Amino acid sequence: MTFSYEKVLIIGATSGIGKALATKLVQNGTKVIISGRRKENLETFIQDNGSDKVQAKPFDITQLDQINKFASDVIAENPDLDCIFVNAGIQRPFDFSKTDTVDLDILDQELVINYTAPVRIAKAFIPHLQRQEKQTALAFTTSQLAIIPMLRCPNYGASKAALHHFIITLRTQMQNGPGNVKVLEILPPAEFMDDAWAQINAGDEQIAVGSAKDIVDAVEPKRNELYQHMTQMLTGLIKQFLK
Ligand SMILES: NC(=O)c1ccc[n+]([C@@H]2O[C@H](COP(=O)([O-])OP(=O)(O)OC[C@H]3O[C@@H](n4cnc5c(N)ncnc54)[C@H](OP(=O)(O)O)[C@@H]3O)[C@@H](O)[C@H]2O)c1
């Protein structure tokens, strides 16, 4: 199995994991649309990789009221877009034992970037993905800290845990169509690209790498089992009520 998508929008591609993924995709022959706030990084990436393979679409995802316009502009310019990768994220430390050090505006911004905006981006792009004749994908970067919290960044883990829960249900909601939208989740530690790429190409939907893999393997099979059981039970109950 090989990576089957033709054009990928990567939101959060100006550095780190998103930039590494964009590089990997271009090397694979996949067209990419790269996004993020730092225009100079987007432009450098195009210079290094060629404007025939890469487009840039600068955007700040905290501009929640502009997300629909961002999506409709990207879709109008790229009707062949078949994969959206929501990778943007920030991590900020907070110590609630010293409340005077806790800046709630920064906390709210972290929650918006890591959770609220990704959910709104999903809503904005799903209709386009559902309309495609072929398999499409909506992918998110969460973290092993979505499953096991880290002491210094309580809000980061909580925001990624929220996104992780959202992804689990979104995947189930997409299963029966319309369209054929795969929902992917990448849970990376820092050293991740080659292993993640192998798992993406193997068709995996929950892609955990390195130390994240041990954590996911320890917790997620049981969570998935309980989730499937509860979903079946509740679906049965709802059917009975609707009779
Ligand atoms: N590195 C790790 O060890 C690790 C582990 C687990 C999970 N993660 C997750 O992996 C993802 C990428 O992280 P990274 O380590 O590669 O960090 P990074 O180099 O700081 O990349 C973060 C990306 O998010 C973008 N971003 C941040 N705020 C944004 C905003 N308001 N609007 C649009 N884009 C925004 C940044 O672009 P601009 O600054 O140009 O806007 C940048 O492209 C994040 O979701 C992170 O939580 C990372």
Automatic annotation (TrEMBL):
Pfam families: adh_short (PF00106). GO terms for molecular function: oxidoreductase activity. The keyword Oxidoreductase applies. It comes from the Eukaryota. The keyword Glycoprotein does not apply. Transmembrane segments: none annotated. InterPro entries: NAD(P)-bd_dom_sf, Sc_DH/Rdtase_CS, SDR_fam. Keywords: NADP, Oxidoreductase. Belongs to the short-chain dehydrogenases/reductases (SDR) family. This is Short-chain dehydrogenase/oxidoreductase. It comes from Penicillium chermesinum. The lineage of its organism: Eukaryota, Fungi, Dikarya, Ascomycota, Pezizomycotina.
